[in-house]
Write a structure and sequence with these properties.
168 residues; 5-stranded antiparallel beta sheet; 5 helices; 31% helix; 24% strand
């Protein structure tokens, strides 16, 4: 299931996702796995693999990955709409099976969930998002998007609930 948040306001709102993500042995630390990059827009900035927190913060503020250039007219404004949280959730039965599985099976389930999210993001990019530019925004073209994906394994009530936040 996919749920889409209201626009995220304020550039510090992304800190929630970074706080939950671990860097290495997340199973041992009781944290969530590290986030990773998705979307065609990642190529323009050579983003791949695990999310670097500083790069994430800069992009969430509307700045280039190195923080030296504004990418939008209201970059770094605390009032700007920083993005949306598209949350992909699996059925409860999958989360329950994951919670009772061995370490190796858990990893396979997580890999399958992440692969499904990647496919879903690809589909959204192919049919759902256009950008306007030019005088009066007349020129429309398919947008190349950057998503910061953060896998989570529990609900806020700490019940097993595999889901992936993809911040656009």
């Amino acid at each position: 299931m996919l749920s889409i948040s209201k626009p995220i306001r304020g550039y510090d709102q992304g800190e929630y996702y970074l706080r939950l993500a671990a860097r290495d042995d997340y199973y041992l630390e009781g944290k969530e796995p590290p986030g990773f990059w998705l979307g065609e827009g990642t190529r323009a900035f050579q983003l791949s693999g695990t999310i670097d927190p500083e790069v994430f913060r800069n992009l969430f503020r509307g700045l280039s990955p190195d923080g030296n250039r504004a990418l939008v007219h209201n970059a770094s404004s605390p009032k700007r709409r920083s993005g949306w949280d598209l949350t992909w959730s699996v059925p409860k039965s999958v989360s329950t099976a994951w919670s009772q599985a061995t370490f190796g099976i858990r990893q396979k389930i997580e890999q399958a969930v992440n692969a499904a999210v990647k496919e879903g993001v690809g589909y959204l990019e192919s049919v759902g998002v256009v950008t306007r530019r030019g005088e009066d925004g007349i020129i429309r073209e398919r947008a190349k998007l950057i998503f910061a994906a953060f896998p989570h394994s529990t609900s806020r009530a700490l019940d097993p609930q595999l889901h992936v936040h993809t911040l656009l």
